[in-house]
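[audit] Reproducing an earlier prediction to check determinism. Same input, same settings, fresh worker. If the tokens differ from the archived copy the diff job will pick it up downstream; this log only records the rerun itself.
[audit] input (389 residues):
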Amino acid sequence: MPTLRDAAGSGGTVDRAAALARVRSAADPNGFVPFDRFMEIALYDDTVGFYASERLRLGPHGDFYTAAHVHPLFARAVARRLEAVREALGAPRPFSIVEVGPGDGALAEGIVRSLGVRDGPRGPTEYVLADRSGARRREALARARAAGEVSGIAVRERSTISSDDPIVGAVIANEVLDAQPTRRLRWDGAAWCELGVRVRDDRVVPAESHPARPVPGPPLPSPLPEGTVVELSPVAEAIVREVGDALARGAFVVLDYGLEEPELLAAHPRGTLAGVRSHRVVADPLNPVGEHDLSAFVNFTRVRAAARSAGWVEIACERQAEALGRWGFEALLRSALDEVRSSEEEVRTRLAAKNLLFGFDRFRVLELAAPASAGALAPVTPGGRADGR
């Protein structure tokens, strides 16, 4: 008979029977598991979670890629924004950059290299990789630390955003909020019900519970066409609050795909949940548990409301292409084209730039300022030399 083990999960395998047992253990007396609890197990469980896997690979040859894998131009643009934040804060010593959920370290490596280029960092700079997954921290640390040794930037890691000392600098989260445990609610024509799962035989199947648990923050819209699904992530909103507690002065930069809630309901009335493995959308996002990525569009209406309630001052909320332009992408592209060594490399660079500007059209950048530094940060745009370096 078929084995319950397959190539995924911690140490290279996921025990499918153990994964189903973990889902069952989270069920209420009626066997119902809210979707956010299921997603927590499927992605972050220490034994069966997708992100706990040593097998997980990012990039063109992995399960999925981010903008940081498209071309170094993306990291260079983010680095320019971080440089502008550093100058606006008066070049604090040290200037701390904390990346939440650094993945394989591609963005960290690019930022560290960019900050250390030419004359090296102006004043002590440290780069901190914050990730709950030990496997991801080890992978990112190896990659970023090698760049840091060349650039003169200290790179270290920790499991949480918070530290003993308040952070002065910047916190960045690139494609992090979309992968946080997400609640899914369905309008049944009269009220909201909670979507979730239950285990039946050897599979996870959709389920729902009436009524939905209370939803903090802005009231849910109603009435709506029957069957409309709204998605929101209390964990993503909690990350915004946690960063606010940890960051004394500086900026929080969120880069992710998502829309405002009215846009989500209009464009995606059945929700945006997707499972991805090897760059392909899987047919069944619920099965097998822990063997593919799960994500949903960020509900920026609720994330921004959480930021306001936490005291953040919003600097910008715009399309990623607009933010890249504001951060000096055009000058950086000119510089990159000046350095190409062949026509083929020029074509690849131009295509990568086009992808970064137009291939991530559903991506948004939300920039938040800690109250103590809002006055200094709000009007800042990256400066630098005419060549973008």
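[audit] rerun output stored. Observation attached for the diff report: DSSP finds 13 helices and 18 strands in the chain.
[audit] end
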